[in-house]
Amino acid sequence: MIQEIDVRAFAAAHRDGATIVDVREAHEYESGHVPGSRNIPLSQLPYRLHELPKRERIHLICESGSRSATAAAHLSSAGFQALTVVGGVSAWRSAGQPTVTGSRADVA
């Protein structure tokens, strides 16, 4: 079963320093992402598992929640603590939360 987190709870986790992985393609990430998130496109995820912490919750986000749900299922089956952000970056923006542009995970 895929674990989900809503935007309100995700915002609190974000403030607390959550590990966030944006699984959108690089050009999508660069156009606006959650501050502090790192970009690992869904297509690259299976090859980059070694970059992720096994002992921390990993919050996965995409534009609407579909790709992040796929990523969460994959990571969960590989033994990671993975959650998908319901509604993705679209819901994050709609909730009035900040985004940053560019290829870096800078904090706003």
Automatic annotation (TrEMBL):
All copies of domain Rhodanese, residue ranges: 14-101
Family matches, as InterPro entries: GlpE_sulfurtransferase, Rhodanese-like_dom, Rhodanese-like_dom_sf
SUPFAM superfamilies per record: Rhodanese/Cell cycle control phosphatase
PROSITE patterns given in the database record: RHODANESE_3
Classification via CDD domains: RHOD
Name of the protein described by the UniProt record: Rhodanese-like domain-containing protein
Pfam families associated with the record: Rhodanese (PF00581)
PANTHER family hit by this protein: FAD-DEPENDENT OXIDOREDUCTASE, RHODANESE-RELATED SULFURTRANSFERASES
Source lineage: Bacteria, Bacillati, Actinomycetota, Acidimicrobiia, Acidimicrobiales
